[in-house]
Amino acid sequence: MTSHPSLPGSLADASLADSEMSWPVTSSEEKFASGFLRLTLDTIVSPDGGEHPRAVVRPRGAVAVLAVDDEGRILVVDQYRHPVGRRLLELPAGTLDVEGEEPVDAAARELAEEADVRADTWEVQLTMYSTPGYSSEAWTIYRATDLTPVPDDERTEREAEEADMHQWWMPLDDAVAAVLDGRIADAKTAASVLAEQVRRSRA
Q1: What spatial distance separates the first Cα and last Cα of the chain, rounded to whole Å?
Q2: Rounded CA separation 97/59 (Å)
Q3: Taking every annotated instance into account, which residue ranges of this chain make up the domain Nudix hydrolase (predicted)?
Q4: How many Cα atoms occupy the beta-carbon half-sphere of 39 within 13 Å?
Q5: Report field, pTM of the whole predicted structure over 0.85
Q6: Number of domain units in the chain
């Protein structure tokens, strides 16, 4: 390990990565539970022996889809998000709320339900934690191509916030600009758009 020549910290090499670790938990008290998530109050023990309370939101996990059409445009949907009081531009996405469903199948279901689109080709684009300071929620973002429309008679009747959802196909450069100037602020969407830009720059 080599120290930075003039600043605190060490110089990283190409192998640097997240790593598994679990501090001891002396107690875990469930404060809330629903079909989508649990909230626990955990007491963890740091290496120096100190005990620290931590509220942890425990969702069931989630998936999102970067759908790319034959012209290289990407799909975003807009919908009202009550917790932040805004309409957000986002990738089609949803929670793993069907017991036993594989994540890629959940992603395909969400793409069909929210955008009336199917894809023949799927690959994992990103895996990420959205807010690891207080939530265990893990996201898998898929890149979907070879797209076709869902037939009219097989389309989902959307409800609640999704009933007012719109679908937009954006050139990637426009999506990148929207991320960088704050018009797209959803974390998973911003990360996926920028990852797609890197992917294409390396092609």
Answers
A1: 33
A2: 10
A3: 57-192
A4: 5
A5: yes
A6: 2
CA separation for the pair 76, 91 (Å, rounded): 5
Q: Which of 71, 90, 162, 196 is catalytic?
A: 162
- Which amino acid appears at position 163 of this protein? A
Q: Which amino acid is at 30?
A: E
- At 154, list the tokens: 């097989």
| Calpha distance 120→189 (Å, rounded) | 21
Mean pLDDT in each 10-residue stretch from start to end of the chain (203 residues)?
A: 93 93 96 92 96 95 97 96 94 91 95 96 96 94 97 81 86 98 96 97 90
33 shares its domain with 122 = no
**Whether the Cβ atoms of residue 114 and residue 162 lie closer than 8 Å to each other:** yes
Instruction: Tell whether 179 and 84 lie within a shared domain.
Output: yes
- Answer yes or no: do 124 and 196 share one domain: yes
Is 157 part of the annotated catalytic residue set?
Answer: no
